Amino acid sequence: MAQGMSSSLVLDRPAAEPSKAAALRVSRERIADDKAMLRAAADLTRDLNVARPAIFWTDLLATVVVGYAALAAAILLGSPWAFLGAAVAVLALYRAVSFIHEISHIKHSALPGFRWVWNALVGIPMMVPSFMYEGVHNLHHARTRYGTAEDPEYLPLALMKPWSVPLFVIMAVVTPIALFLRFALLTPLSMLIPPLRKIVVERYSGLVINPAFRRRHPEGTSRTQWHVLEAATCLWTLGLLAAVVTGVFPLRALAIFLGVVSAVTVINQVRTLVAHLWENEGEALSVTAQYLDSVNVPPPALLPVLWAPVGLRYHALHHLLPGLPYHALAEAHRRISAALDEGSPYHKASYQGLPGLVDRLVRSTMTVRR
Q1: What is the pLDDT of residues 80-107, one digit of tens each?
Q2: 124 and 97 Cβ atoms separated by less than 8 Å
């Protein structure tokens, strides 16, 4: 996922110190593809490319049951059980939402009905229907788009000002309100006002972090699916609002729900901070250079299971082999790591955990001219 559920935000792009910016740019540009690594990665994982329906369905449905049961506990019970329920709901629903990343990659014929069930159970209630990611995320994987101005999910955060990092996270706090307004207000208004519709489609219909990105209008079957999901999400948000106004759904319950969604978004935004090194300043990169600008956080680290679920802990490997389903990534990493010697670039994209990666990013921004 933006890298998942990141909302569009405007961050300044200052000039970096010449030595740092030039060194990073030159080093990235000069990284040629390591053919041995690419060949080994492809050859060793050919049998892992098929999505396994039993794993997808069991994982999704179990996660949804736990997530909504915990959310109900957070709403209905008193403290401290309510706080425990909220914490479990955040982690479970975050995992459930993260399946949007798989939906943007899998062949839907391999998992009939999965996209629609996910939207009904997760995408629409959480106000992130799959059209917000499908048709956008694939551009992030395009060979000539990654890390450029045409990449919807990339900003050179490591070369930006120090305040860019905390602002990047803080913006996620208000994302649920923005999504609620997007579907409850902008959707019906844009249907009546064509110029507004153009703005809504291009600027407010994608989970992106690049403020310069403008989405193309959908066509064909994608357009039909978009309209169905957008209409359903609009009705959900309007129905939720009507239930609160009429007293059917307490305002406190809505606040808890939005708080849980906000926490999910913040965790995802922090994960996005460490999904890449964010050191490319707009140049087209080789596949190997894209891999080295991305991050794996493999075992023995345990916490990535919570903050980078559904295969997101293997984000660099995912950029190397975007067609692998999430349940195959751990085995793929094991095979490739064992087959390639220590000098292979493959091993250079693995890191120990979240704190070190955040520290690296923050330190990098400290060298930027203010």
Answers
A1: 999 999 999 999 999 999 999 999 999 8
A2: no
pTM here? Answer: 0.91
Residue 21 identity (one-letter amino acid): A
State the angle between helix axes of 251-273 and 220-245 in degrees (0 to 180), rounded to the nearest 10: 140
Distance CA 118, CA 63 (A): 11
Contact yes or no for 24/279 (Cβ under 8 A): yes
- Are the beta carbons of 266 and 169 closer than 8 angstroms? yes
CA angle in degrees (0–180, nearest 5) for 183-122-332: 125
Judged on CB neighbours under 10 Å (0-12, 13-18, 19+), 19 is: exposed
Q: Helix 354-365 to helix 164-173 angle, to the nearest 10 degrees?
A: 120
Question: CB neighbours (10 Å) of residue 321?
Answer: 20
Nearest residue to 38 (alpha-carbon basis) of 285, 298, 283, 336: 336
Is-contact 101 133, C-beta < 8 A? yes
